[in-house]
């Protein structure tokens, strides 16, 4: 009986690996280096070798493994193929076919890393017990994942959950990395919050502990918690953009919960409370009480979600 | 073998009924009056009697019917129950249980009317051949429906596809019928376009055929097609709101196609072209070419979509 599964999260520098019970218990986790040289052709053989070694070490037979789920930084087709993964130096890759062959036929399923992290948070994180959620990852950029009825919404072009590029301010004049103007990522990522801060500091006359020359999202939220009035203006601006956006997303998929993760979310409950104020202003009546919670799995969300791909 | 199915669209004044082959061919359609008196308790018996009569008339046995799909104007739970349907004078109603009993056990499934119309357009309308779409119905209000992987996204509170209440302009000062301010419905419904028009006409100095005292969405689009510069400003404003909103919805679910229906969409391709300009400005890179098309089924979308509920 299949009582184990593996969750593999392939990043540009390390591959995070997890051995799980199929009920979601994490038995072991480890990392290997991502060897991106030669078009990343060693990555899958390295992953396979590491999995087979772990099975041998733990005395786990092939029949005891329900499958291997893999998260990759790129668009994924039909849970099997990767269109392109720039950070891994991969072009089009038949990932599931290749890895299944290397693993003597153990079932492999693949997901985009941001989407898979959302699935992980649904399974054992901030959204545990739900079957639908919108996950927002506030990091250097803004990532996301949409889960409906327990499944990732991949989208017709692999852009399901690309909520960082929702155009929340058409009047914005600066360009986002994606080429558009006014993306949520320009307002709510770590760098986006700093950008908002610099705009506000440029016209601010009240005293503040913040210094436009040396500023970070963390410094802004720290000052906010200390009662700095300028920091409060910056957080309020960020929160209005994000809260409004969550309200719009809610009118589309109406999730059971919104889960906020990523480095910026380390600011904790004060961030959630600031966002909730604007979410509740703009959300559709029947969704105003949808919980907005912090992610729980941190960097492990990817391995949890990858493992969940191969568990019903 | 089940070769037939019924699609029933219950509205506040009439019940639209369709007899279909399970491949989607419409064999017969008719209407009955919606008797809303006495808390609408006659509605389901009337529907059942009409279906049974049609089966007798056509010589169709119970075993030849895969099921009866029903669209209702209200939130639906698990394809069986209706929370409330104000226009039918219904409170909570165990619709599927009741109608199955009246139909001697023929399978019944239920969906919200706007969502069911989206499913109909996916099956045999503007989205035929796809498995995912965002439908926008521009009528007195703005309705919608989201289809992912061939299924309606109902949402945790029945608010999936309530895109008319996406807050697209937080700076709006007038209230929507829902109580919020800045809803898409205030900008893109028939009444919303007139509202935008009155604002623009109040400050407009150029000559125009439009008259603020006697104006309609149709008059605005007619004038736009005739080259009226003021009408062009109004349509442009409407199109920016709707195109931007579609771009945001695309970042959430990334559908194969956007389908635009409802009375306002009678303006046709010029409306689509106006919206497309702003959609392509704001959509995420990989979604910029997602087609935006006109709905095809008009008032029959509901019976088609209801029938599809009971066809795999």
CATH class of the largest domain in chain A: Alpha Beta
Helix coverage percent of chain A: 25-40%
Number of DSSP-assigned strands of chain A: 12
Rg of chain A, nearest Å: 20 Å
Tell me the number of helical segments of chain A per DSSP (H or I, 4 or more residues long). Answer: 10
Largest binding interface between chains: A-B, 49 and 50 residues
* CATH homologous superfamily classification of the largest domain in chain A: ATPase, nucleotide binding domain
- What is the string of SSEs of chain A from the N terminus onward? EEEHHEEEHEHEEEHHHHEHEH
Oligomer: homodimer
Question: Major sheet of chain A, described briefly?
Answer: 5 strands, mixed
Q: What number of structural domains do the residues of chain A give?
A: 2
Briefly note the structural class of the backbone of chain A. Answer: alpha/beta
Mean pLDDT reading of chain A:
96
Report on the structure:
2 copies of one chain form a homodimer. Chain A is α/β, with parallel strands linked by helices. The first copy, chain A, has 2 domains: about 5-120 and about 300-310, ATPase, nucleotide binding domain (Nucleotidyltransferase, domain 5), CATH 3.30.420.40; about 125-295, 2-Layer Sandwich (Nucleotidyltransferase, domain 5). In chain A, about 35% of the residues lie in helices and about 20% in strands. Chain A contains 10 helices and 12 strands. Chain A has helices at about 35-40, 45-60, 95-100, 115-125, 185-190, 190-205, 215-225, 230-255, 270-280, 300-310; strands at about 5-10, 15-20, 25-35, 65-70, 75, 80, 110, 135-140, 140-150, 150, 255-260, 290-295. In chain A, the strands form 3 sheets. The first copy, chain A, has a 5-stranded mixed beta sheet with strand order 3-2-1-4-7. In chain A, strands 10-9-8-11-12 form a 5-stranded mixed beta sheet, with helices on both faces. The longest helix of chain A is centred in the last third of the chain and has 25 residues, at about 230-255. Chains A and B meet through α8 and α9 of A and α8 and α9 of B.
């Amino acid at each position: 009986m299949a009582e184990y599964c593996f969750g593999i999260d392939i990043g540009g520098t390390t591959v995070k690996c997890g051995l799980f019970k199929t009920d979601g218990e994490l038995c072991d986790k480890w990392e290997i280096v991502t060897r991106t040289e030669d078009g990343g052709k060693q990555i899958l053989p390295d992953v396979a070798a590491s999995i087979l070694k772990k099975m041998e070490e733990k005395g786990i037979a092939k029949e005891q493994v329900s499958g291997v789920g893999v998260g990759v930084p790129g668009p994924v087709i039909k849970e099997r193929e990767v269109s392109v993964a720039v950070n891994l130096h991969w072009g089009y890759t038949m990932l599931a076919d290749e890895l299944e062959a290397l693993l003597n036929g153990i079932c492999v399923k693949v997901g985009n890393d941001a989407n898979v992290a959302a699935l992980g948070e649904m399974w054992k994180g901030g959204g545990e017990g739900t079957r639908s959620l919108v996950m927002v990852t506030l990091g250097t950029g803004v990532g996301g994942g949409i889960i409906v009825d327990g499944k990732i919404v991949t989208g017709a072009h692999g852009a399901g959950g690309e909520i960082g590029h929702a155009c929340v301010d058409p009047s914005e004049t600066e360009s986002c990395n994606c080429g558009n103007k006014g993306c949520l990522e320009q307002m709510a990522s770590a760098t986006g919050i700093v950008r908002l801060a610099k705009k506000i500091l440029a016209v601010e006359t009240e005293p503040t502990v913040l210094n436009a020359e040396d500023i970070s999202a963390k410094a802004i939220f720290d000052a906010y918690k200390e009662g700095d009035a300028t920091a409060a203006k910056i957080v309020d601006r960020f929160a209005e953009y994000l809260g409004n956006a969550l309200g719009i997303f809610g009118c589309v998929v109406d999730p059971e919960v919104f889960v906020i993760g990523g480095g910026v979310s380390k600011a904790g409950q004060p961030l959630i409370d600031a966002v909730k104020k604007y979410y509740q202003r703009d959300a559709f009546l029947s969704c105003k009480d949808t919980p907005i919670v912090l992610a729980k799995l941190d960097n492990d969300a990817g391995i949890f979600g990858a493992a969940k791909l191969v568990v019903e």
